[in-house]
């Protein structure tokens, strides 16, 4: 559960700075009355507001899904921006990664046109690297790039 207590001084600032979510995916119940979520358009780099649609959930693809899908799924960069001085709440359910198995693209997603992009890795190892290097927009995945890529 995220609660943003925005005062007048917060308007125009970020409640959460640009990041990717580390896990497989995030299921987000956003505040239905207060906008603020913005995603980065991968092509233009523009920040695009994702205004809430009552009765719907937002699903974010995270870093683990990018690795697991051999690069087919894209880890979306996003942030939360303060548009107005009010309280904003959201509920995020993080689906992370297997605890006892490595993150690894299944053979069906690897072929000569799509060579394996990442070596298998433990989520915990990824998490430690991501936090210790403050690589919050997926850069830490580079450490697990397969030699041929
Ligand atoms: O509050 C939101 O809309 C998103 C929060 C978020 O990006 C996160 O918890 O990872
Ligand atoms: Fe997020």
Care to describe what's here?
The structure is a single chain. The chain has a single domain, classed as B-lactam Antibiotic, Isopenicillin N Synthase, Chain (Jelly Rolls, Sandwich), CATH 2.60.120.330. Strand 4 and strand 5 (47-49) form a beta hairpin. The chain is α+β, with helices and mostly antiparallel strands. It is elongated, with a radius of gyration of 17 Å. It starts with a strand and ends in a 17-residue tail after the last helix. 11% of the residues lie in helices and 26% in strands. It has helices spanning 63-68, 123-132, and strands spanning 2-5, 14-19, 25-29, 37-40, 47-49, 58-61, 78-81, 87-95. It has a four-stranded antiparallel β-sheet with strand order 1-8-3-6. A four-stranded antiparallel β-sheet has the order 2-7-4-5, with no helix packed on it. It contains two helices and eight strands; from the N terminus they run ββββββαββα. Bound molecules: 2-oxoglutaric acid and fe (ii) ion. Fe (ii) ion binds at residues 19, 21, 26, 78.
């Amino acid at each position: 559960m995220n609660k943003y207590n925005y005062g007048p001084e917060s308007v125009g600032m970020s409640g959460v700075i640009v990041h990717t979510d580390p896990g497989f995916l995030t299921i987000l119940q956003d505040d239905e009355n207060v906008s603020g979520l913005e995603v980065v358009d991968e092509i233009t780099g523009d920040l695009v507001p994702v205004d809430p649609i009552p009765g719907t959930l937002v699903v974010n693809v995270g870093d683990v899904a990018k690795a697991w899908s051999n690069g087919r799924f894209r880890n979306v960069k996003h942030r939360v921006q303060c548009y107005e001085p009010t309280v904003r709440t959201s509920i995020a359910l993080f689906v992370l990664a297997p605890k006892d198995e490595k993150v690894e693209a299944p053979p069906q997603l690897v072929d000569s046109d799509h060579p394996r992009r990442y070596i298998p890795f433990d989520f915990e190892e990824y998490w430690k690297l991501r936090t210790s290097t403050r690589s919050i927009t997926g850069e830490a995945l580079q450490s697990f790039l397969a030699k041929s890529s």
